[in-house]
Amino acid sequence: MAEQAPSGDLGPGGLAEVHLALGRFADRRYRELVKYMCSAEFETKRSLLSQAKHKVHLHKEHRVNPSRYTMRLQKESELDEKEVTRLEEGRAEALSQAVVGYLSSLRAGTPHDAPVFRLASLWLDNATDPEITAKVQEGLLNVPSHRLIPLIYQLAARMGSSENTCNMFHDALKKVILRTTLQHPHHCLLVVLALVNANKDECLLKSTRGKQSSRSVPRDAVTEERMKEAKEVLDMVRVQHPVLVWEAEGLCDAYISLANYDARKMREIRSGAFDPDNLGCSSGVKELCPWEHTWLKAQRMPTHDTAHLTGLTRSAVKP
User: Fold this and answer.
1) What are phi and psi of 29, to 5 degrees?
2) What pTM did the predictor assign?
3) Disulfide: which of 37, 170, 279, 316 matches 290 by Cβ 3.0-4.6 Å?
4) What is the DSSP track for 13-34?
């Protein structure tokens, strides 16, 4: 029902509202079913069903003549199992309709931001479902990429996580992040670089302060895999935006170096005598050039349907 576009002269705005209403209706049904299936009542029903099936199996295994109690127990367990199956199928159907409804509303140009956040939540909560992943991956290709910019932090955080995901989830996730980053690098590139540079602080501290004073932060397999996947995305972005990636890497390295600068000597400097030009650190901030593609990240960059941005302060830092 939600996959068919409503007919009539609704216009783009009206069509988007119809799809959004359908998506919200299905989503409401989905949440009701999930809430019930997570309740103590449903868990008790499942436990009793499992016990009943086990008793029936034992009677059949030991070839005990079926009594009236056994026959009734088997019939009731079959009915309960059908009800559980019906609820699970209803939950899956409501989830699919909600995803399709939200995707259709975004494709039709809804001005609301709630659908894209709820869509991401449904997708990430059901990352083990290959059908939902396939629907989201295909549907997002027809959604303007600038609508996904607010999700970049949430999506990037799931990179490298192999638990509770299907096989195609990470490939689809990487494609979504790559498409958004390619078309809006000024908004998304630093998020990818943050994952790539996850171990930069530790390496920098070891090289500048020695192994004794630096704390070794253990990284788990998920962090390592996340860094690897982020590096793959960065390399693909580098093919289309080589200068931008080079400048952004330099800016991030300078920020990281400055953040880890040993400021213990500055405690001895009297108030009013501090001169930032005499830091004497190898932070790299003072070595930044007037770049043409990278902006200082102290401003709020507006979101547009194109990546063309004007009126922002570039990274022009003179020593």
Assistant:
1) -65, -40
2) 0.79
3) 316
4) HHHHHHHHHHHHHHHHHHHHHH
